[in-house]
Amino acid sequence: MRGAVHFKRFDEDDELTKIAVLTESTAINLLLKGRADLVIAVEDTADHAMSVLNQPANKLVKMRYRFNDIIYGYLALSKQFSATPLAQQVDALIKTMAATGQLNTLIAPYELPPLNEQALSF
Q1: What predicted TM-score, i.e. pTM, was given to this entire model?
Q2: How far apart are the first and last CA of the chain?
Q3: What are the CA-CA distances from residue 6 to residues 12, 52, 67, 75 (Å)?
Q4: Secondary structure letter of residue 34 according to DSSP
Q5: Sign, CA torsion 70/73/78/99
Q6: pLDDT (tens digit per residue) in 55-96
Q7: Cα 30 from Cα 53, distance rounded (Å)
Q8: Cβ neighbours for 70, distance < 8 A, ≥ 6 positions apart
Q9: Which residue has the higher pLDDT, 19 or 73?
Q10: What is the pLDDT of residue 119?
Q11: To 10 degrees, the CA torsion angle through 3, 8, 10, 13?
C-alpha cells in the first residue's frame, strides 16, 4: 500500500521492485493479471477485495506469515480544523456512533475487527 511501512529490511531493500498502490483491490488486480508476483496485504481486506472484484479467494495462494496485532484505520484532521466547532461536532458524533454500535455496523462489510475503547481514544 502506498505509504505503508512494513519492516526495515523490506522497506530498505532496493533489490526488490515494489509497486505502491492505493487500494487492496488494485494490488489484487495486478496479481490476478500477472503484473505482480506478490501482494502484501491484510488478509481480511484482501479477501474483501477479492469479493469486490467478484473473484474466488482460492485464486490466491496465501503465505503462512501472520502479524497478529490489530490494525485500525485512522481519521486525520488538520490542527487548524480540529480546533473548530465543526470538528467538535464530528468528534461527538463519532463517539455516539461508536457507543451505539453504528460504527461497527459501518465497518462490518470490510471484515475489520470491531472497535473497542482503545481504538476510540482520540
Answers
A1: 0.51
A2: 24
A3: 10, 25, 11, 21
A4: T
A5: negative
A6: 887 888 888 776 666 666 677 889 899 889 999 999 889 888
A7: 12
A8: 113
A9: 19
A10: 65
A11: 100
CB 47 within 8 A of CB 37: no
d(CA 49, CA 55): 9
- Greater confidence (19 vs 7) lies with 19
| Grid-cell match 488486480, residue found | 29
Cell numbers at 92, concatenated: 461527538
Matching residue, cell 493479471 = 33
Q: Are 50 and 60 in contact (CB under 8 A)?
A: yes
Pairwise CA distance, residues 38 & 18, whole Å: 10
| Single-letter code of the amino acid located at 67 | F
Residue 9, pLDDT score: 80
